[in-house]
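In the laboratory, one determines a bound structure by crystallizing the protein with its ligand and collecting diffraction data. In a computational setting the workflow is compressed into a single prediction: the sequence and the ligand go in, and a structural description comes out. We illustrate the idea with inosinic acid.
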Amino acid sequence: MPGIIVVGSQWGDEGKGKVVDVFSSQADFVVRYQGGANAGHTLVVDGKKTILHLIPSGILHSHTSCIIAAGVVLDVERVCEEIRALRASGLIKDQTQLLISDSATLILPYHRLLDQARERSAGLEKIGTTGRGIGPAYEERASRKALLFGDLFQKETLRGKLEVALKEKNFLLEKFYGEKPVQVDDLLKIIESVTQELAPYRCKDTSLVIYKALRCGKKVLFEGAQGSLLDLLHGTYPFVTSSSTLSGSAMIGAGIGPSTITNVLGITKAYTTRVGAGPFPTECDNATGERIRQVGAEFGSTTGRSRRCGWLDLVALKYAIRLSGITSLALMKLDVLSGFEKIEICNSYELDGQKITEYPVSPGDLARCKPIYEALNGWSEDLTGARSLKDLPRQAQDYIQYIGASVATPIDVVSVGPGRDQTLWIKPLFS
Ligand code: IMP
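The predicted complex, in structure-token form:
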């Protein structure tokens, strides 16, 4: 039963979309199982850029069925916009290419308004959310009041459910945050404008579809969103997202058992980035960080915000490998490091005068950690034309080797640019 999970092993934006796109050529199904339109997966094929927020990154391969599973928080307007754009460019040709679970949690305008109002009123405690309504939607699901995708098609009960939801949300919006309330008729208008378009993609039970696919030997890729260090329970709380971003979340979000999984591929950049607030020990708030940001085009594909940049943190990477049971790694954006005479790499921290090699789970401790670096020789060559490992300069090969050995995990994929052909395959994923 060849199920493979692709997870981010940093603070998101590692390049999961590109890896999923490349491996989707061999996959029968690609499943998004958590998060929502806070994600931004950028794919570049033949120089053409496609940015996806909700639709799985397998959608560029017409033979692959993409599934939005129950664990996703689904912004119906955004998913509709994505579908329209993909249809207009001929990438969605028929409805079997996309299935949306009836059990996915809806994100409606009031979730976004609440998310943004809450962030505005947070003062110095801002998390830096994307403002896409993720937190309020997951809260509503946990409080058992959420509307689900399937509810859109129950016309007789929809208005009543919206009225119940709005009673509480409007109280918060108006009385607590001083914002304008949302009118049920406006909501119904928005919903009406998208429901018909989304109906062909409706699937009552995507968990059953995935189960049957795995049982008959189909290849299924589970596409994570965000990164391990943004995990609600194990990330840098409270500077995290509101879902679990670890591999275990694929089981829950898609509704399948762990015995179906053969590999967990962790995605990491050759350096580190973070968007939003929260501790980041290897951040380089200097010319080095700026150079990585410019060369790596480290600006958010969802919000356009500039990402904080720094050297690779092996302490954090080892933590992510442990949390998700990562069996191999994809090392992304190695080309961005060309031209540094020395490349620093963090393999331990100093915390209150002590050297530590394990990631501290308390964000307070993490914020006091100072990185201890080893400096490796850099390289001056442009890597973007490399097509196999042996095309890389010795120092770049040494860097890869150093990382794999330090975290005791094989590096199966190296990426040297956004294009599909700029992917150096060390080992095939579906063997
Ligand atoms: P939220 O998920 O929009 O509530 O944002 C919570 C935190 O997670 C913020 O720091 C965001 O910048 C960060 N975040 C959410 N989604 C992503 C992502 O896809 N990539 C990187 N950071 C993200």
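Residues 155-176 form the longest helix (22 residues). Keep in mind that any predicted model is a hypothesis to be tested, not a measurement.
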